[in-house]
Design goal:
By secondary structure, the protein is α+β, with helices and mostly antiparallel strands. Helices cover about 35% and strands about 30% of the residues. The protein has four domains: about 170 residues, no CATH class; about 100 residues, Immunoglobulin-like; about 100 residues, no CATH class; about 120 residues, no CATH class. A hairpin with a 7-residue loop joins strand 10 and strand 11. It is rod-shaped, with a radius of gyration of 51 Å.
Length: about 550
């Protein structure tokens, strides 16, 4: 009875061994035979079952195939030296099983290289144990905790290695290209497995394509650009996203070795989006850097003026007035400002002039822009793509005119004309002219009166009556006649001024007459002067535009 029971148990174990071995699939194996052997004994193995018991202990050998390291892949079968045939591991194992074993071995190999205190036999024992542990999990051997004897390798070391191997497998699936061979023949099967790192790093270095525009300008920033890393040239399979920092650098993105494609998704402040798709070759274990540059946003500059006659509202002026040669001062500020916070100093300044151009209809256009043909003076231009441009920022343009534009009377057309054209209305120009002339007159007359009063001891009343008053009346006669819209010869105005001066000199020379009329005349003249002053102010504010300026689009009517 005991013999019968023993034979049954032996048969059951044999059946279990067959069932739990690696599955066999009809495949084409290599015809070449490979010599396999157990080269030497490396240490004691304890087959710890999942229930905690030790199923068996044995002295494991160092397995080799044609002199190269191999591992036992069937813990339940004894090994015999001899020739075996080789097949790809994928014919007997799934990709997940292969990567599980291969990555576990890769971890132990790296661990052994980092811990030189372990000898080659100890490292091999650890490698063989992780192979059995992973296969036990996949094939149900129920010895997931098989280990080397603690006399061979300390428990702490083994625990660290086995836990590290499991974590390494989870963290590195997909990062390695895994494969293996299985050697079959008489006795135990052997396996060889490898895991080759199949990823590298991609990073990006971004710069400005035109640093002369962007350097020192807060409206441009390299930071914040985003780039997509794609597996295909059409950029439909995104693998990672790269974002630039303030220096234009990005973090690394780990991708599979080969060629990836990189495209800008969003540009940083002040730059145009680069639509180019770049290719980048990635080598396993290395970092590849793509150097790119973005084009800063700029604007072309052009001011176009149309010459329009103020009375006829046509582009054919009646007089000799011209917009050609008018000068503009351009002040560029590297930042966004308004009139309240505009810096005292501009970043760059230019002066340009207008040039007349005639279109196909014969209409004269007066154009100025930032280009050498129009430049009068100033800093160098900002250049991009061979032409002058303006970076992002604030631009102020000042039309340069004489402080007091010259006015003259066009007798043939019964109108007043301005020598230099400006953006300002005739009211503004004429009022400014009168104010500045009056200011200069007051300063000069005050200085003259102080000099006469101090040196010749002439009273202030005498100065007013004998000099200031007749001079003012003379000026009124002159300007009143010359600025009148009626044709008045200059000679007539001069003669009238001389006659007035003679009459007033005769009056002041006769003491009796002057004493009688002095006060009444002064009161009368003061009243008339006040009335005229009020009238002139009203006309300047109310009637100037109506008489001398037209109302049309593009013409200032202030």
């Amino acid at each position: 009875m005991k013999k019968t029971w023993k034979r049954l148990c032996t048969g059951f174990l044999a059946l279990a061994t067959v069932v739990t071995a690696l599955p066999t699939t009809p495949v084409h194996a290599e015809s070449k035979q490979y010599w396999t052997e157990s080269a030497e004994r490396v240490g004691i193995i304890e087959k710890v079952m999942n229930d905690g018991s030790i199923g068996s202990t044995f002295n494991e050998g160092y397995m080799k195939v044609e002199g190269e390291t191999a591992y036992c892949i069937d813990i339940n079968t004894d090994f015999k030296n001899g020739y075996k045939t080789r097949a790809d591991a994928s014919s007997r194992m799934s990709a997940d099983q292969i990567s599980d074993v291969a990555l576990s071995l890769e971890y132990v190999k790296q661990y052994g290289e980092a811990h030189k205190e372990l000898n080659y036999k100890q490292v091999y024992l650890l490698e063989q144990c992780v192979v059995w542990q992973r296969l036990s999990v996949h094939l149900g051997w129920q010895c997931d905790n098989v280990r080397a004897s603690y006399d061979e390798i300390p428990k702490a070391t083994q625990d660290e290695v086995f836990a590290g191997a499991r974590a390494f497998v989870k963290e590195n699936k997909g990062r390695y290209e895994c494969g293996g061979y299985i050697y079959s023949g008489e006795g135990q099967e052997l396996g060889q497995f490898w895991a080759k790192l199949n990823v590298g790093n991609a990073k990006l270095q971004k710069t400005s394509s035109n640093t002369s525009i962007t350097d020192g300008n807060g409206n441009y920033a390299i930071a914040g650009a985003t780039y997509g890393v794609f597996a295909d040239k059409d950029c439909t399979k995104q693998l990672a996203t790269l974002t630039t920092d303030e220096n234009g650098n990005t973090d690394v993105a780990e991708v599979k070795a080969g060629t990836v494609y990189i495209k800008e998704l969003s540009a940083p402040a002040g730059y145009k989006v680069d639509k180019t798709v770049y290719s980048l070759k990635i080598e396993a274990g290395k970092t590849a850097t793509l150097n790119v540059s973005d084009t800063p946003k700029v604007t072309d500059t052009l001011i176009e003026l149309f010459k329009i006659d103020m009375e006829t509202q046509k582009d054919n002026p009646q007089g000799n007035a011209s917009l050609a040669g008018a000068e503009f001062t351009w002040k560029y500020y590297a930042g966004f400002y308004n009139k309240d916070n505009l810096p005292a100093e501009a970043t760059r300044t230019w002066v340009t002039k207008t040039i007349a151009e005639t279109d196909s209809n014969g209409t004269a256009h007066y154009i100025t822009k930032l280009a050498d043909a129009y430049k009068v003076s100033g800093d160098s231009f900002y250049m991009q793509d061979g032409k002058a441009v303006l970076p992002l920022g604030t631009l102020s343009v000042l039309f340069v005119i004489l402080i007091i534009p010259e006015l003259w009377k066009n007798k043939s057309n019964q109108c007043m004309e301005i020598e230099n054209t400006s953006y300002y209305s005739l009211r503004q120009i004429y009022s400014t002219r009168i104010f500045l002339f009056g200011l200069v007159d007051v300063i000069l007359l005050t200085a003259f009166c102080i000099f006469l009063h101090g040196s010749l001891h002439i009273t202030l009343l005498s100065l007013l009556s004998q000099f200031v008053f007749p001079a003012v009346v003379t000026a009124c006669i002159c300007f009143g006649l010359l600025c009148n819209k009626k044709n008045v010869n200059e000679t007539i105005s001069i003669v009238l001024c001389i006659l007035w001066s003679v009459v007033w000199w005769l009056i002041t020379a006769n003491e009796k007459i002057y004493s009688v009329i002095k006060m009444p005349v002064w009161i009368l003249l003061l009243g008339i002067a006040l009335l005229i002053l009020g009238s002139m102010i009203y006309r300047v504010l109310h009637d100037c535009t109506r008489y001398w300026e037209g109302h049309s689009n593009g013409f200032n009517d202030n």
